What we know:
ten-stranded mixed β-sheet; 11 helices; 18 strands
Amino acid sequence: MEVLSQGKAAVYEEPIGPAGVRIRERPRTEPKPGAVAVAVQAASINHLDLWLAHGAQRVTPPRVIAADGAGVVHASDDPAWKPGDEVVLFPTLCCWECEWCRAGENVKCASFGVLGEHSDGTACELIHIDSRNLFAKPKALSWEEAAAFPLTFLTAWRMLTTRAQLRADETVLVVGAGAGVAVAAIRIAKHLGARVLATSRSEAKRKLALELGADAAFDSSAFSKGVREATGDGVDVVFEHVGPATLEESMRSLAMGGRIVTCGSTSGVKAEVSMPRLFFRQASLLGSTMGNASEFESVLKAIDHGLRPVVDHIFPLDRVQDALVRVDNTEQFGKVVLSVAGGSA
Ligand SMILES: [Zn+2]
């Protein structure tokens, strides 16, 4: 089912970075059967939106950006949802019907995609979307918080639990601690009871990582030395999203039998791996992207038990370019959120 973004919307029009994303007015229509119209209250920016804006995702414009959104049901022909219901959107796109989807493995669906990349996105006043992408908004969260967690918490949850099988008695190292997904990883790992170490180039971000609950934080240059001193043998799990710039140090930080889990490669697409380090230390290198609906439900349950996202800064939808620049300059710690005034449609 096609996702339709309507009303005032932040539209990627030209691959020139943040300046190529502009506010436009889209026509409003009635939702098609199976779709629910949601009046967006808040959306949030991911690094993905920057890649899109810089033309790195091979997405043909125009496209309404953003994967994360929360809002109020405006119109629905699905009896499960009625106008006024407060919802948060599951940001994974899939067919919901194939063998993988029926087995609960939405991320392996041939039609897998990300909201706001492979379809129009949440940075708009009104979104028409498959009713199966709707989940009840956690009551404890503000609109901005509800729009801040979906993509990063879903991604980090799958990485740490399903893929890396992190246990409460283990230590995890979160590389590049300012990024949204890394902040989610720190929060989730602490929530699961693990010991958390973090790295960042920025002293301010190392300080924030400690405030967030990290047990120790290290400068990004040659961080494995400090990590090994703090742990003895190294960490059980390294949470990676940086790639070539950090992978060697991440490998050096691993304990015997350790796992590196990665969801991204912001420093480049090709990395060298020291093969002896991989096999002599019984190490695992695990890839992961987004997450399944069941994992999204697990995140929602964890939020009910106190897990919280981190909102860095809130911009009105009209200032989407400023919001993108903040993420482009990696100034943020946590999530940059777009507040959609007039989202009541
Ligand atoms: Zn499918």
